[in-house]
Design brief:
Blueprint lengths: L1 E3 L6 E5 L12 E5 L5 E4 L6 H9 L3 E5 L5 H4 L2 H8 L3 E2 L17 E5 L2 E7 L8 E7 L2 E8 L17 H12 L5 E4 L8 H28 L6 H8 L8 H18 L3
Parallel strand pairs: 4-5, 5-6, 10-11
Antiparallel strand pairs: 1-2, 2-3, 3-4, 7-8, 8-9, 9-10
Helix pairs in contact: 1-3, 4-5, 5-6, 5-7, 6-7
């Protein structure tokens, strides 16, 4: 576990020691200092040292999670036990002692600080982002895995869909040049430019998948997920091949619904 230099005043960042192909250097857990007690966003995988370090930055008044994946919620029960704080996510299963988060909800933290819930499904069906406001102005957005510090994210199909993901990127782009605080990969800068970059990439990949599927059909072959992935993601590292296939599945599903394959 290590503390990173935060680009946003009043927000501390602890990076968990859980590096990997999907977590990059590790899960970035955030702690917002607030008058009524600290707010923790994404407690990470189950890891006593990490959750104890988060608890030590308290007292913790509230724990929020951006989505259901284990590298975000695995340590949730331990952090609740350490702090006695309620937890909230979009899904009821992660909301203990408080109601699930609702799109558009404003969580007042005191002294001009607030968090606004922004539903950003696509990576998973329950993915949310949290917009940090100071004196009514948007200053940063915690994006979970919807936008990462670098690279691109998986569409965990069928729970996540590409239609939802593209709409979520448009919603994030509409926030303007506020600071992006993702769950992995550092701090990549203003969210509007990043969301546009992600949209461009997704649409490029979608066209590549359409062309690959059409090519397979012309040869009398079925455009299965593995067959299309072999074409579009031929150079991908084996460690992320499964993630690539999830995303191809989402892309093929969208193309089929549009009647493009």
């Amino acid at each position: 576990m290590s503390e990173l230099d935060s680009p946003v005043a009043g927000v501390r960042v602890l990076r968990q020691d859980n590096p990997g192909p999907m977590t990059l250097q590790g899960t970035q857990s955030y702690v917002i200092a607030a008058p009524g007690g600290a707010v923790v966003i994404d407690p990470g995988d189950d890891d006593a040292a990490h959750q104890e370090a988060l608890s030590a930055l308290g007292p913790v008044a509230l724990i929020l999670v951006t989505h259901r994946h284990h590298d975000h919620v695995g340590g949730l029960p331990r952090l609740r036990e350490l702090t006695g704080a309620p937890s909230r996510g979009a899904a009821a299963e992660f909301s203990v002692g408080a109601a699930p988060l609702a799109d558009g909800e404003l969580i007042e933290l005191g002294q001009g600080l607030a968090l606004r819930v922004l539903a950003t499904p696509g990576h998973t069906g329950d993915s949310i982002s949290l917009v940090l406001l100071r004196d009514g102005a948007d200053v940063a957005v915690f994006t979970g895995d919807t936008i990462l510090g670098y690279g691109t994210t998986i569409i965990d199909h069928p729970d996540g869909t590409l239609e939802d993901y593209l709409a979520s990127l448009e919603a994030l782009r509409a926030l303007g040049p506020v600071e992006t605080l993702p769950a992995h990969g550092g701090f990549p800068g203003p969210v509007d430019a990043l969301a546009q970059k992600y949209l461009d990439h997704r649409l490029m990949r979608l066209e590549q998948v359409r062309a690959a599927a059409a090519g397979l059909l012309e040869r009398g072959l079925e455009p299965t997920v593995p067959a299309v992935a072999d074409v579009v993601y031929a150079e991908v590292d084996p460690s992320v091949r499964r993630a690539a296939e999830h995303t191809v599945s989402a892309q093929l599903a969208l193309l089929a619904r549009r009647g493009d394959i």
